[in-house]
Amino acid sequence: MGATKTDLFTKQQNDIAAMAKALAHPARIAILQYLVKKNACVCGDLVDELGLAQATTSQHLKELKIAGIIQGSIEGASVCYCINPKVWKQYRELFNAFFQDVDLKDKCC
Amino acid sequence: MGATKTDLFTKQQNDIAAMAKALAHPARIAILQYLVKKNACVCGDLVDELGLAQATTSQHLKELKIAGIIQGSIEGASVCYCINPKVWKQYRELFNAFFQDVDLKDKCC
DNA sequence: ATAGTTTATTGTATTATTGCAATATTACGA
DNA sequence: TCGTAATATTGCAATAATACAATAAACTAT
């Protein structure tokens, strides 16, 4: 077929995969890093910052917004984006839990 | 076009995105969780475990192997897979660094 | 009102991903 | 050697993601 069979997996597995997918493009990583660096609402700068077309940038912003990790607010003619701290922490905790030290054997295969 | 413009971004940004992409499917999350739970080389079980076709499972294993996060070794007629502890730690550290506490403002937008 | 600015949406082309059947490959055992 | 078992690969179809031009929508300023 071609569509992911989400019903075969647990909600947690689908959630982690969805979070990872939100991060699975360098432009979205760049956007998040920029917002974290500024640690403020950013209006407009992002298109110039990335080097991608305005439409493409807008699309990546939309995906990050759908994933919940950023939020936007209308500020006059422009729209300002910033990290959603609550969701950011959720991401951190989920990935932390996933990668938590499990005393992996050094010699395995 | 349709192809990711990797040249617009830093190596670090591309690396993080590539790692996230390796995790961006619930089947691959399930595989990793299973290998971590077993904390050993696993031979054969995975196809039954996942519920996907053998060919599909093999393909996901291949992607994880290319990403470096698992390794396989031939064990007679079957192939055994396990976590690559070194790369696992790299993933953990990179995501940790990315999500590190940055004292995000609670009230932003 | 009108022109300019900023962001979102739509349409379309291209590439990537997902999934499975069929086949190939490799190793083992009788 | 021949048949069986376990993985990998190939070929194909369907879906998703990436990118951008063109356009729309919403606000500003003159």
Q: Which pair of chains has the greatest number of interface residues, and how are they split between the two chains?
A: A-B, 52 and 52 residues
Q: Strand tally of chain A, please?
A: 3
Give the termini separation of chain A.
34 Å
Instruction: Give, in order, the helices and strands of chain A.
Output: HHEHHEEH
Instruction: Name the shape of chain A in a single word.
Output: globular
| Gyration radius of chain A, rounded | 17 Å
At the first level of CATH, the class of chain A is Mainly Alpha
Query: At CATH's second level, what is the architecture of chain A?
Result: Orthogonal Bundle
Helix content of chain A: 40-55%
**CATH superfamily heading of chain A:** Winged helix-like DNA-binding domain superfamily/Winged helix DNA-binding domain
The biggest sheet of chain A, with number of strands, parallel, antiparallel or mixed sense and barrel status, is: 3 strands, antiparallel
| Structure annotation, total helices of chain A | 5
Organism (chains A, B): Chitinophaga silvatica
Domain HTH arsR-type (chains A, B): 8-106
Pfam families (chains A, B): HTH_5
InterPro entries (chains A, B): ArsR-like_HTH, HTH_ArsR_DNA-bd_dom, HTH_MetalResp_TranReg, WH-like_DNA-bd_sf, WH_DNA-bd_sf
